[in-house]
Each structure stands twice: as C-alpha cells, then as structure tokens.
Amino acid sequence: MATRQELLNAREQLHIAIHAAEEWQDSYKASPITFADLLRLEAALETAAGEYLHELADRAPSYVDWSRLPEPIKADAGPVANNDDPVWKQEQILLTAAVIDIITDLVATGAVAGETLYGIPIGYSTLEFASLDEAIMQAARKHTAQMVSNVSETTRKLIRESVAKSIALGENADFATVRLMNVIDNPIRAQLIAQTEPVNAYQTGLKHYALQTGAKEKTWDGLSAACQICSPLIGKTLPIGDLFVLANGREIDRPAGHPRCRCSLIYIY
Ligand SMILES: [Zn+2]
C-alpha cells in the first residue's frame, strides 16, 4: 500500500497539472521557468498547510477544557484556551516552520520573474540567488507572520464554533472531540490558503523588484472574467506607491485582491 508521503507526492503532481490549466493572468506565464516554479511552490504550500492542519487536528482537542462543558463559549474565555494562552504561540511557531521556506521561495520567484519580464538586471537570475537577498527574506518573514496570524485566528474561531455547536446539540465530550477533529483536518481550507498566498508572496517579490529597478507606475492586469471584486480595477494605472481600492472598499498595493485571485500588475518605467 502507498504511504502517506507517496500519496501526497502524487497529489502534488496532480495539482500542478490542474492549477496550470486555471485562468492565470498572462504575465504569470510569460516566463515558463518562473511559472513552473510558482505552480510547484503552490502545490508544496498546499501540502504543507494540509499536513499542518492534519496534525493540528490531533492537538486541537487538548485546547478545550471538556470538563467545563456545557459552559457557554465566550470571545476570550470559556472552555476553549483563551487568546493569550501559550498554546497559540506554539501553533504559530509550528505553522511558520512548515511554510517559511516555501513563502521565501515564492517571494524570490516574483523577483526573478521581474528580471525576466522587464529585463533590467538586478542579479536575481536564479531562485537560489534571489532567496539570499536580505530584503526578500525580510519581506518573506513579514508575509509569513501575517499569514500565520490569519490562519491561527481562523483556527481559534473554528474551534470555538465547533465546541459551541456541540454544546447546542448536547453532545458528550467524545462526540464533540470527533466533530472538532473533522472541522480542523480540512483539506479544502489548505487548498484555499494555497490558492491565495502564492499570488500574495509572488506579487510581493515582483513589487520589490519593481521598486529596486525604478518603476514609476503600475497597471492592474486582470482577466475580464475575474470576479466582481477585481474587475473594476482592470487596466487602472496608479503611481507605484498608491493603493488600489477594491469594489468592497479594501485598499491594497498589489494582488491578491481576494481568495483565489489570479490578477497581476504590469509595472511601467
Ligand atoms: Zn483578482
């Protein structure tokens, strides 16, 4: 029988093929080498996030004081470990360790793609070389910290909701534990993380390249079939330091505009 690792490897290959066929904005595909890197890293991120959640499912029940059920769930107290509990810090360390190298390579891939797209040399002709750049590593750390903080906030919310549901249904601790583990071990959530963060990280690297090489403006590059949130921005040009305003009012300096966004930016020199 295949091991979990063999199954994960097979799934990664399948996902590279599936995601390559998605509607990526053309500039992502302009360099076949960086596009291949992007897809490979996206698949690796999905595996890393999925494995983290799979293992978290075993730990999550210990973050609930089951003896206090059916005491109601409150925002930062009640049967679920509160927001200041050291267990969440530990979870953030584990998730950071699982994803930081992949995120760093994604940021570096964006910078390498910049060199390929715009042809102004900065010395990032390979992923390895760009990964060693201190500014890129710093951007990757910042990016990872933000992503990890969002994921752990969602995790706490999911745990509270699951326990609240068990209380509402009058479940005993055994049933409630099974419910909680199923909620946490969710490959769809890993997929959502992996289909949003690579665009964020890649665009961070591309922006870094554009700033380093003196770009002056940026144009939103999206697909006409893109979602309603991004479509009003397509073709809009702004000074490089300005923010785009999404249809939902959120201000961003670059894609991703929303989960699963595949938009890009074209920099103007
Ligand atoms: Zn978009």
Gross geometry: elongated
Query: How many domains, in number, for the residues?
Result: 2
| Structural class by secondary-structure content | mainly alpha
Strand content: 5-15%
Strand arrangement, major sheet:
2-1-5
Oligomer: single chain
Helix content: 55-70%
Number of helices: 9
Order of SSEs, N→C? Answer: HHHHHHHHHEEEEE
- Average residue-wise pLDDT: 90
Instruction: Please give the largest β-sheet.
Output: 3 strands, antiparallel
Architecture overview:
The structure is a single chain. This protein is mainly α and 269 residues long. The chain has two domains: 26-207, no CATH class; 215-269, no CATH class. Helices cover 59% and strands 6% of the residues. The chain has nine helices and five strands. The chain has helices at residues 4-20, 26-29, 32-59, 86-118, 127-131, 134-169, 173-184, 187-194, 197-212, and strands spanning 217-221, 237-239, 244-245, 251-252, 264-268. The protein has a three-stranded antiparallel β-sheet with strand order 2-1-5, with helices on one face. Strands 3-4 form a two-stranded antiparallel ribbon. Strand 3 and strand 4 form a beta hairpin. Helix 3 (32-59) packs antiparallel against helix 7 (173-184) and helix 4 (86-118) packs across helix 6. The chain is elongated, with a radius of gyration of 21 Å. The model has no long low-confidence stretch (mean pLDDT 90). Zinc ion (ZN) binds next to loops.
